[in-house]
Structure formats: C-alpha cells, structure tokens
C-alpha cells in the first residue's frame, strides 16, 4: 500500500521516540524474560531514533529541544512506518551481536586494524615497524606452469597501440636522474638474505619464462624484491617494488576510468518487482603474474643485481659470452608486477574485454560472432522516389511535399538514439579503430549527400567510418532541443564521437524576416536584431517560443562542438554569413560563438554556396577545427554572367506560400563533397596519430572514458548485459530484469548478476567469462555458483533477504571499536584513521552515511601521527558513527529508497553543509581548533529543511526515469511528496 502524505502529516523529523514496552502484570519467568527482550529491542531502536534526529539537525547542540519534541509528538503515518523499519534493523542488530563472541573494545580495535595490537596499558596501538617476515625462497608461491597471457595481444585495440611503444608510456620529460637514483637507493633492496635471494632463482619449479637475466648496465630501472606473508601464514608472496619505474611512467589515472567502486557499484543494481537477484562469482588466480609484458618493459623491471658468478649456471649462453664472472647481472621480471602503477589498469582492460566479448557472443540469438558494428544501411528510400537531381535531390515542390508529410513520424536518421548508442559502443569495442562521425547538417539522406561521399572516400582510404546523418527538422527521435536527447548526445560526445559537423536551423536569422512590407504579406517578423542577437523584446507567445527553441539549439550545438574538440576531435559549425550591418542579426557576432572559437582554436571561413552549385548566392560561414576547412575559401561567387547565374531569390515565399529559405538548408553537391573530404582527411589523421576522442592518445587534461562493453537487449541479443564498472562512471543505475543482466569486475574478481526470470543466468555468464579467461591464458579455478555465494568483494551477501551488508563479525567489531575509541581520553590518530578507513568501506553500501563523520577528518588531518586528547565533538561523532554501522546494508530492489530515513536525514545534513560553505565562502575550511569550528557553525545560517527533502525526493524520482539529468536544472516542487513508503 502506498501512503500519500500532505506536508503537514508527512513531516518525519524530528522522529518521536517509541513508547517503551509495558512491564508485564504477571511475574512469571517467561513473561519477565519476554519483557527483557522487548526492552532490549526498544533501547536499540531508541538509539537509532536519536541518531536519525541528530542527522536531521546536523549537530548535537540542540539535543534537549529535540528530545523534548521527540517525546511529545503524536506519530503520524510516515513516522510509524519509519518506526517499523527501525525495529526491523534493531532485530538484525541484536541478532548479529549475539553471533559474534564478546570481546573488549580495545581488542576489537586490534582485531580490525591489521598492524595494531593492544599495548601494556590496554590500548590498541599501531606498531611502527611493518610486519616483515624473513624471506624463505622455498615458500614463495609461484605458478608451476608456463602459461602466460600476452599483454599486448590481450589488450583492446586502443590500449594495445598505446602500450606497444615505450615512448607512449615512459615519460622522461621533467623527470630527474637524481630522483630516480634516490628512489632506487631507498627501495631497490632485497628484503631478505642474499642466500635466500639466490636460492629463489635457483629453484627448479619457477617458470622459465618468468625472469630474464641482463647485464646490470643494460637495465633501465631497479625494483626492490621482498616478500609478505600470505593468508595461510606459511607461504609467501613476492613483492616487486618498482618505485623508480613508477616514477618514470606517465600518470595512469588519466587513462583509467575503471569504475571500481566496490559497493558503490553493488548499490546501483535494482531488480524489477517480483523478481529475485541471483549472483555468481569467479576469481582468477595469480592474475598479474600470468600477464607477460612487452619486451621493452622488461629492462625496467630489474631486481637488485648479483655477481654473475653466483648465478652462472642460470645465465643464457649469449650473455655468458659477453661478460665475465665478476660482472653484475640483474634478473628482469617478464610478467606484470602488482606494484606497477599501470598494472591494475592493464589487467582490468584485458579482463573487461574478455568479459564484454564473451558475454556479447554468449547472448547472441543466432549462431556466430557479432562483435563488429552493424553495417550501415544507407537509406535507399529516396532513390526509389526518383527525384530530379537539379538541386539537392529534389525540387521545391517535392521537397515541401515531403517536408509536410508527417514531421515527427519519419525516421530519416537510420538509427534511434538507443540504436546509435549500441552502434558507437560496438565501434569503440571493435578490434579496429572506427572513426565515428555525427552529421547534423540538416536535410534528409539523399544521393550525393555528405554521408555518401564520406563513405565512398573512407572506403577508398581504407579507414573505418561510422556515420549518422541526423535531420534535426524531421526526425522526432533526435530533437536535440529536448533536454533528455541533448543529455544523451552529450554523453555520446564524451569519448565516443570523433567528428561532429552541422549547423542549427537558421530560419530565425533569415533576412526574409526583415523585408520591408513583410508584415503586410504576413511574413514572419524578425525575432532578433543585430543589437540583440539572442532575441528582441515584445514578442508574442508563439514567437518567443520559437526563439527559445532556436536559441537552445544554437547553444546546445555549440556545447556539442566544444566537447568534441576538447577531446581532440574535430567540429564544423555552419551558419549563414554575417550580413555585417544593422539590423541583421547573426550567430557569428555573439560572444558565445567568439569564445567557443577562441577556446577550440577554431578557424572561420566564409564562402558562397552558388559557387558550389546552389541556385542562389547564399553567403555561408563555417567555423571549426575540421582539417582542411580553409578550402571552403575557394568557393567565391564570380559574379553573375553568362557562365554563372543565380536563380531567383532565396528569400520570401514560393508559389505555395511556404517559406522558401527553409528548402535551401540542403547543401549543394560540391559543398557536400568538400565537407566529406575534410571529414575523411581528419579521420585519416586521427587514425594515423592515434588521436581523437576514440583514439589511444588522450589530449592533456582529458579524463579517459570508461570502456564500452555494455550492450542492450535487441533482436540480436536475447538479453542485454550492463558492465557495472561503466555504469558507475556514467552515474547510471542498472535495472535487472528478464532481458537485462549485469557484470562487475574488481581487478581479478568477476561478479555476474541476473534475475530468476532472465534468459541469461548468473551461473552461465560466470562460466562463460571464466572459460574465456582461461582461453587466453588465465587460470580461473575459483567459481562460485549462485546458491554458494556468501561473500562478494568483502561484503556479505544474504540470498534469502537479497541484502549486501558488512560481514557480521566486522560489523560488530567495528561498533565495539568505535565506541571504545569514543570513551578514551587520548587517542592515537593512526588507530583512529585505520578504524575510520574500515568504517568508510562499510559506508560504501549507503553513501549518505558519509555525512556523519565531519569534524573527525579535520581532527585527523591536524594531529596526524600523534597521540592526542579527543575533542568532545569527535567523541560525539564516533558514537554516531557506531550507530550508523546498523544502516550499512544495501537492498537491490526496484524503487529507489526515496523514503529511507537515513537517506533523507543525512542528505539534509550534506545539503546544509554545502549550502553553509557556499554562503560563508570566506570561512577557512580547516579549523584551527574545535572552538573556531563551533564559531563557524554559529555564524552560518540554517537552511530550511523541507527544501532539501523535497529536492532529494524530486531528484530520486527523476533518477528512476530514463532521462537522468535535466540541463535546465531541477525544479523544486512546492509540496514534498513521500512515495515508496515501506509496506504496511
Ligand atoms: Zn554567384
């Protein structure tokens, strides 16, 4: 049952306290026992209520008033619903508490924090020295076979091109030799005795293709070699600390957009009502060690050198021939070391490709691989109509006839927005670089249009081009003035589109509007003047509507162009030439256009369309970053004469009363051809250089886009698969259904998600992925089926309740540890930091809980490395954080938890802090002491709380729909509506 509430009775906070259970009349042991249990549950729930009320207010300073309010209020429907919810949480909390054997608070801290132990005084403390274990060569775990995954072969095409060349990856500019040497002095040591070190290399069971001996003077960087104990306590894992190599490497962060958010990804899963989530998992063993690096990388992965004599028997003949026994030689690692800053990125890219490819093939309905983008089917409809080719494929009458036939029903673009998404994703994931072009230059597809020329020229140049021609006027599915469509377009331009060309409609700047006596002829009036190019005053409703629409298209298209060029792509913006005199307006004089040209270093060229085959002069300006744009300059009207004539006026109305200039938006033949040449020229350059938005070289300061392996349900695929790593980066959610499944990759852990009704089962997908990984050389022994999964990436999974949560032991220990820290007079900040880190891991399950710790971060920053007196406000936060642990769970269900009490309360708090900081911008964010922090809280104004609640409800309601974000900003409703109340 859904309960709708008016604001009066829908107010949730402050939440009244639950009435205590009444003492039993009978004094029997059984009823007393039951009463004690009830009392315990009630106390637990009261703790949660105080916590939520604290979040609501944001500080603990008005608690008295709050408690009073919480006591007297009669609960409304909404509050009762929250109560029920909290009692449920309390029950679970009490249950797990019983499951975990009791420990003291300090031992709980010690149990949680790896390097901490309880000292003589009974306090948990972080030991200064690392848990070093002496190296034991025979205990170092290594794979026993020679199987490897060739790194370059296994990487997707763009990454392969990037990592194939040393100069792409190693960045020597601005790097100092001295620093490299210092790093090597500090870190390039052997973490053990020389004897064990040599013994390791003499081991017979080490794969022969794992190390390569090189003269020490030939190596380019030296790494440290040490070991850490493995979980079983006896075996050891070797650790290559390639600090100096990392120093020489370029920053991998720009290349990486892996969406590895752990629980952040899990919480993006939703399941359709009535269906049940299923998940399966598999785990690669020794994933990094299996990857064989390209040969250029090997000299950078040298371990500390030894004398040739000590390893003489291991050295290959050709090396022995060139050195003496007294020379130094270094073993160079030929596999991917875990400690290299690019390793996670490389492994993830390999794995994502395996997952994407195999699942796509697995979901294909027919047999065979469909990994290539669908061949573009040019629209042949027009040919069949047999137009005359005198101009633009058809004459005026015909054009007008067609234009009038069902605008909004014809799909001239060939692709819907979703189909185009699928096509460009497939293009990005294909094995060859495909240049993606979007043409918004208006007009329908016809013979001799830009696209036809581009496809012909690209085939001749032997480059792959995927192109779409969007008719802004005719295809309702591509109405870029609509915020949802524009949002989709902008997302496409984030790394999926290389070239964008076109011009937004220009009828609002038409000179016809300025014709004298136009009003008498019932011609449209001017909407803009030169002095006000974005619109004049005194327009009718219809006129201003049209103007707004046009302005929006102009600005949207400018933004689109800038986005593509900012990522190293090319754009071309076409619009009528600036008449240059009053009163005629022009887009070319707007500051927005001039700024765009400055930022993108665009070039502007003006020419006459009559010189390229148009019947009228039609001065036109193109501006952009497209290669060869300057060539348009050669189209200049030679003047009317016997060889060259203009056919009538471009302005005014034709005999049917239709607006003639509209028809001239189709480009004349020579212009189409030149535009196509420019596009193909740019495409060719991008392919050769590896540049452009879909290329492997990113321009400086540009963040990589995530991979594009997700695909949706279609005729070709029985069900779609969302790669959650991609969804996370895009801020999208995944709704699992009968036709939609999902995968999440965490380095070497793969999780597959589906529902009971889905044609792709989680177990099948997991086996498909695991088998494909084994096919390329990995070993995937650990495969967990849906009924066996209890833990994923560190979180507990309960199939019966479909809940992700902190594992019970961790949950209880964390609460005990936080409460123990809160009562200490002095605290070791290192311990505090470690516990907060674990708390944050849990808070990933419900990110709004991050609103709780606030002062504590300042405290840690200020006193890092010290043992100091705890601030009372930090103490308070620690207590609240302990309570917050009860809310660390995630339920992948249909609707967003709009009515989640923590969500609402904490969002109010986040919102307040943000608003406060905005208002009091000059206030120093890092407070020197707790006192100044309090003063800060006193000076900032309080924001009305209903505002954020309604804001957030509106937001989550919207997020559920297809269009995630509206570029016009949110509208805050007058009345907050509470939807999705828990079932009564
Ligand atoms: Zn001319």
Structural commentary:
The chain is of the alpha+beta class. Among the domains are: 137-258 and 285-349, no CATH class; 381-641 and 660-689, Rossmann fold (3-Layer(aba) Sandwich). It is built from 32 helices and 28 strands. The strands form nine sheets. It has a six-stranded mixed β-sheet with strand order 13-12-14-15-17-16, with helices on both faces. Strands 18-20-21-8-22 form a five-stranded mixed β-sheet. A hairpin with a 5-residue loop joins strand 1 (116-118) and strand 2 (124-126). Helix 5 (105-112) packs across helix 26 (808-822). It starts with 6 loop residues before the first helix and ends in a 24-residue tail after the last helix. Mean pLDDT is 77; it is low at 1-8, 366-411, 650-663, 895-899 and 911-984. Zinc ion binds next to loops.
User: Total strand count, please?
Assistant: 28
Major sheet size, sense and barrel closure: 6 strands, mixed
Q: What name does the CATH topology of the domain at 381-641 and 660-689 carry?
A: Rossmann fold
- β-strand percent reads 5-15%
Q: What is the residue-averaged pLDDT?
A: 77
**Gross CATH architecture of the domain at 381-641 and 660-689:** 3-Layer(aba) Sandwich
Radius of gyration: 34 Å
Whole-Å distance between the termini? 7 Å
Number of helices: 32
Instruction: State the strand order across the main sheet.
Output: 13-12-14-15-17-16
What is the name of the CATH class of the domain at 381-641 and 660-689? Answer: Alpha Beta
Globally, the shape reads: globular
User: What hetero molecules are in the model?
Assistant: zinc ion
